[in-house]
Alpha/beta fold hydrolase
Amino acid sequence: MTTARGADLLVELAAGDGAPTLLLHAAGGGIGPYLGIAAELAARGPVRAVRAAGLLPGEEPDDDLTAMVDRYAALVDEPPALLFGWSMGGVLAWELAARFAGRGARPAVVMVDSTADPEPVDDRLRERVVASAGFAPTAADRDRVAAVTDAHLRAVDRHRVRARYDGPALLVRCPDNTDTRWPELAPRLRTRRLDCGHFDVFAPDHLPTLVAHTKEFLDD
């Protein structure tokens, strides 16, 4: 197995001028779920996304969240204006923002139904994560997505967010999300509600509300 090159992990979804956005993958590693929100954010500037290592043949998946943050922080020369992530991707966005604060930057952070503490994962939830990755056209691809998912779930199980970040932050929370630690870590946190399940946040019925919450936060 080989290590994925950084250039292979960073995907340009929209070019242009303006405030750049960086989307961070959720567990499972694919960026397919972000295509709808990326199209909306492209009106503000270029949009790039980070997909996970392990999804292509010969790549080794990461099973440590801090190692992922180290890898992804090295991908960008300048911190983006917005870091956006769903689920584990929101945690990656948060940790990257705290890392960029050390460079003197204060990017906005949008976390979609993310939790600051580890959560138990059963087999049913694992299968939902695998299915949500949006990167499995063949049986071999599905096997790789499953391996990446297992690595990510191990990473999430071991990771507890401790970094404070004083930049602007938005948590879009689904009803079942009972995490209470984000306000302790985020003095400028704004919270909004999305009335759907965790795996439905980008569905056509709910994407407009997510877009509206995000735009309101960015425009304020």
Q: What stands out?
A: The domain at 6-219 is CATH 3.40.50.1820 (Rossmann fold). The first strand starts at residue 10 and ends at 14. The two ends are 46 Å apart (CA to CA). Residues 139-158 form the longest helix (20 residues).
